[in-house]
Specification:
Radius of gyration: 27 Å
Shape: globular
Low-confidence stretches: 16-24, 163-168, 339-355
Strand content: 5-15%
Largest sheet: 6 strands, antiparallel
Mean pLDDT: 79
Strand order of the largest sheet: 6-7-8-9-10-11
Helix content: 40-55%
Number of helices: 22
Distance between the termini: 21 Å
Number of strands: 11
Length: 579
Amino acid sequence: MLAMLLIGLHRIASRNDDRPGRPATVSIDLTMVAAYVAEATTLEPADDDASIHRILDAAGDTLGWVAKTSPVSDRIVGYAGPTDSLILTDESGQVTSVELLHSPDTTEHLRKVLSDRRFWQQFVGWRWGETANVRVDGVSGATLTSLAIAEAVAWRLSGDAIGESVAGPPPRRSLRFSDDPDPDRLRRWFADADRLRPHEDESFRVAVKDSAGDVIAEVIRTGPLADSVIGYQGPSEVWLRLKPLADDAAAVPLESREVADLMLGNSFDNQPYVDYVKQEYSFWLRFRDRTLGSLAELDLDAEEIDGVSGATMTSLAVAETIRAASASWLEYDRQRQQAALAAERSIGSGPRSLRIHASATEWITAILAVGAIIWSRNHRRGHRWPRLLWQLTVFLLIGLVCGNLLSVALFAGWTGGGVPWRLAPGLLTLVIVSLLTPAITKRNVYCDHLCPHGIAQQWLRPRRRRRLWRWLPTLLRISGCGILALAAVSLITKTPVPLAWFEPFDSYVLRVGWGASLIVWTLSLILGRFDPMAYCRYACPTGMTLAYVRHDASRHALKAIDVCFGIATIAIWLFVLTA
């Protein structure tokens, strides 16, 4: 039942896409085009690009052109994957209509975008080969979805004009990070920064000027170069401050330009993970005083860039963005220098795809997850000193070093956006072990042996149990179920709910400071001094999820949680099948 519930939620979150992250194959045919151009009688592939079709009438005259954004723009993704849109132009290459064919993003976001007539009207008038620096307005409440659609259209149109050889487009203004740079944000680097001037053709390059109008530095924005790397919830933009060039600047190749400092700009990822990354000095130190060539070839595994504890996916996505943006700029520079070869390059070729990051923290997490299975069957776990040694190891490594704790926020994010197995293979191993072992071995390995908060409660166990108010355990159970329901609702409605606030697990990241999660952490430990493991037994929604899949002698009995899960599963599948 739990599996059916999660599958149903994922179906809703991915709009019933059979291949998450990939657009469905939709071929251009005459019937499709005739719905927009009534006089169309024939489609004829263009001589220089078979993915573009000429629209002809009965007399053989050209009425216009039609093309799809997929697969050329498949590198541009929204929440769940790339979109596919139909582009129609007149005979001169001026856009007359853009229609959505397919998107794996959520139904709720797509409804907002499809119902916003102003969003679709802004494409009318764009011209093929003239969209390198266009601006678009996203749809409020569906920003990533709408900007992914718009940027895919812009990339598809940003090659040479129809009839000319198709060349790789120059890096264009990012639609996700389209705001003009603010000089106030850069005064951390340049106290006398007065105004910023983006490069006329290369929107990713920004010249910093003082009050006299003199250029004092050059800053690179990763948005126009690489803004499709998704972290926990969305892409992030990084600003790179380049070291000034010497007098012989013309002799310095681009790959030898050095980065003096970096700064995290705007981000679609959720708080507090973005703040964790901003505050981690050692993380940014890995990228300073390095050349663009070395950043473009950055090997996160070999250089042991493990990410920021507690914000692993966000920080690794930032590192991937830095590498991808550097590689994209160097690629663009090579294309510009070798214009004759540009026509042979694919407009969709971009930075390297994500690889599996077998970092130290992920190795530690995976080893401890598998080791817990062995430990749970070892008779020494009942002896005081071996048990204490295991608990200290788990508490320090899983809790404080790796920060890889299970939570409802984690389950909700993975259910909605897909499993980032390349970014977090160790955490994925922990999830698999935690879900499968209760059903197979009858042991709740994670709660009993791997959860740092459960270990902390065991250490604070009172010598004598005190009775709680009779109504308190019931209230705690209701609160745990309520958090699970809130997570499901947030997936269905795509409402940005900070689920991490309602559990104590973010508090094990030392840089969190005071927050709602720390309040829950404190209250749960105080409660554990009166009633042993009270939070784990009554209130923990993550523990409820793991306990639900545990096979025990009472599984035949119908309980309240079975009724809740059953009603939720039926309701979600009715929605999936009827929406």
